[in-house]
Amino acid sequence: MVEHRSNSWRHSPSFMVLASFSLLAIGAMIWTGIGSSLFVAVALVGTAVLLAALLPVAGVAGVLAALPTMYELHPMPRGQFSLLELAILATAAGMSLNVLAQLRNRSWDGVRSLLVPAQTVVPVMLLVLATGVSLLTIADPAHRAESLREVRTVILEPLIFLATARLVLRDPVWRYWVGTAFIFVGLIIAVLALVQVAFDLGGVAAGSVVRATGPYTHPNNLALFLERTLLFTVAVALLKPRWWPVWAIVAIQLLGVGATYSRGALLAVAISIAFLMLVLGMHRWLGALAIGGLVVGGAAFLSAPERLIDAGGSGSEPTRFALWRSSVRMVLHHPVFGVGPDQFLYQYWRRYVEPMGWPERYSSHPHNLVLDVWLRLGVAGLTAFATLIVGLVWWVKRSFDYIREDIWSMGGIAALMGGVAHGMVD
């Protein structure tokens, strides 16, 4: 990435807003279906790449805005794609033009920055290696197409975005824009979820309550997204307590998470906020957090007791336990290579589902992060996962004096913590 002076037009809020909203407009046009025409598709994608090349930060913000649309596919000349996928590829293409310009000027700073630190680079290399091995050892070759699709959308494209984001976020001004965009995307989605429930515009019925889905098809998907934006915003609020509008956004996002009635999300939020308070030395506030958790839990129990104690089936034991047992048996049958990317469903309902777990026989993953990685990518994937965790913990400890003063770094750690906590049960 070419370095810019602080007074550069690329740091102008007006230009960042204009470029970001232009990309949103392009996404909206693709959403309407007009991208199925070859000429229009080339024009729209080409314009998006050009905008991302001029202002890569707008592209990264556009990717964050497209996150809640990841399950919606739109017709394009070469198939159907989500706005998230198109945003990642257009932004990466634009960023590549920046890197090429840098190399033309014989400056290798951008490329070198992607090769450090080892705590990030080594796990990525191991992940790519594990992915390649998994494609050669999938349990059911008849579903290789599904594995390839998942590798593309769940592994390769996120890694492309990781590289792009790392280049963009080196710039402190651009970091503020991206962080702010992430918070406001969470705010908008939370408001949509609350409006959906308040005006009975959809959702999923669960006993006497309706669980919000927002732009997703299932409440748990919405919860997994909103808990990330909520925890990111909470970290900003704790480090900048006088920014009162941030506290208002926290409250709205918390209500949005509550509207999903996701037990995993509420647990993840409580654990992650407690973690934040501990590392920030806010021990006196842990009691208030515990009281708040009891109040929220009590209110949830009074409003929807059947949801909180729902076992998921006709038995007294949660179906999740049966799913985990079945997943362990699957691991024992495929201990080294796993079953492969997006292969869980085709093995589970045919061979491993228990009678108690029959209501969730079409689960496409084991609802546990460790089992998920193991079954998708085998022991090599577990090695990459463990290397990433150890490396990140080491890096955070080494750099904590800086991290605890940086709102965006703490926000990222809080969101990551929430994802790990929720991932162990969902």
Question: Could you describe the 3D structure shown?
Answer:
The chain has 426 residues and is mainly alpha-helical. It is 69% helix and 3% strand. It has a two-stranded antiparallel sheet with strand order 1-2. Helix 3 packs antiparallel against helix 4 (83-104) and helix 9 (219-239) runs antiparallel to helix 10. It is globular and about 65 Å long. It starts with 12 loop residues before the first helix and ends with a helix. The relative contact order is 0.10. Residues 1-6 have low confidence and may be disordered.
Q: Uncertain segments of ≥5 residues (pLDDT<50)?
A: 1-6
Order of H and E elements? HHHEEHHHHHEEHHHHHHHHHH
Strand order of the largest sheet: 1-2
The termini sit apart by 38 Å
Helix count equals 18
| Overall shape | globular
Mean pLDDT: 89
How would a textbook summarize the main sheet? 2 strands, antiparallel
Helix/strand-derived category reads: mainly alpha
The tally of beta strands, per DSSP, is 4
C-alpha Rg (nearest Å): 22 Å
**Residue share in helix:** 55-70%
What's a quick, concise take on this entry?
The protein has 426 residues and is mostly helical. Helix content is 69%, strand content 3%.
